Amino acid sequence: MKDLIFDRHRRLRKTPALRSMVKETSLSAKDFVYPVFVVEGHHIKKEVSSMPGVYQYSIDRLHEELDEVTALGIPSIMVFGIPDYKDAEGTMAYHDHGIVQKAIRYIKEKYPDLIVVADTCLCEYTDHGHCGIIHNGDVENDESLAVLAKTAVSQAEAGADIIAPSNMMDGFVTAIRHGLDEAGFKDIPIMSYAIKYASAFYGPFREAAEGAPQFGDRKTYQMDPGNRREALREAQSDLNEGADFLIVKPALSYLDIIRDVRNRFDLPVVAYNVSGEYAMIKAACQNGWLDEKAAVIEKLMSMKRAGADIIITYHAKDAVRWMKE
Ligand code: PBG
């Protein structure tokens, strides 16, 4: 044995203190954005059946959620609205009294320090459930841009701190940036869903936000899961158009893409740990097949390690509680 040369990696794993000293990646409450679903109506707190622990709230009960979020030190939420009226153009997406606009006004009045990110899309507001305006059975790109810009401006007027367009139309960052600037919101950043795949992992969200497409799918605007180089082209476009953050979505099956984007671009990189990724863990844990606490922390850590600066995740509240233990 004396002459054998090999590395003793275990030296640095000997005690919890040593392991902590050499830990390369850390998680903190500040890393998280917590998604919140707001519905029209009163006295509503309704659990999303495919997302145990996630609820739709009416505005009058939203404080139950937000008191918890702020007490845990989570700095930011992402707001999704579920309207009580839908039409072909998604007019309630940009209506001054739309559910998101009302919710944001309420939140910013009661929780002025909470960073409110508005998801800018039409699928929750259109009767066909697509993310833009339909012509001849497909989403018409350029016509949708005007509606998206209008939606972003209405969200900024309500008090949104960050606009997060998730619709995957070409040129949406340019259109929204122009719209915001013209309306006097030059300082409102755009957190672009730059890289969004046509993923099976959005299923539970479509129950939560009631925005499933009523015909066809989103493959003419969301990306093919097999494509890696295309992700960099998408990110480059959004950077050129003035995006301030780049989102990669989903996260868990796309850690390679998060790393590619981190290596190539210097903007803050955001991983969206989507509904299906949450549901998988919850289901396995309800069956007793996984240790939820350990699995969730490991999963979120992997996204940071891959290169994400920020994680949008339904696990945020639990994760912060567990990190404090
Ligand atoms: C709206 C939007 C979706 C998600 C976020 N914004 C749904 C979709 O594109 O189908 C999915 C989020 C999740 O699954 O957690 N376009």
From TrEMBL:
Q: Name one GO molecular function term.
A: porphobilinogen synthase activity
- Which Pfam families has this protein been placed in? ALAD
Q: Which InterPro entries match?
A: ALAD, ALAD_AS, Aldolase_TIM
What this protein catalyses is:
2 5-aminolevulinate = porphobilinogen + 2 H2O + H(+)
Checking SUPFAM superfamilies in the record gives: Aldolase
| EC class | lyase
Which keywords annotate this record? Heme biosynthesis, Lyase, Porphyrin biosynthesis
Pathway the protein takes part in:
Porphyrin-containing compound metabolism; protoporphyrin-IX biosynthesis; coproporphyrinogen-III from 5-aminolevulinate: step 1/4
Q: Which EC numbers characterise this protein's activity in its record?
A: 4.2.1.24
The superkingdom listed in its UniProt entry is Bacteria
Subunit? Homooctamer.
Instruction: Please describe what this protein does.
Output: Catalyzes an early step in the biosynthesis of tetrapyrroles. Binds two molecules of 5-aminolevulinate per subunit, each at a distinct site, and catalyzes their condensation to form porphobilinogen.
What this protein is called in its record is: Delta-aminolevulinic acid dehydratase
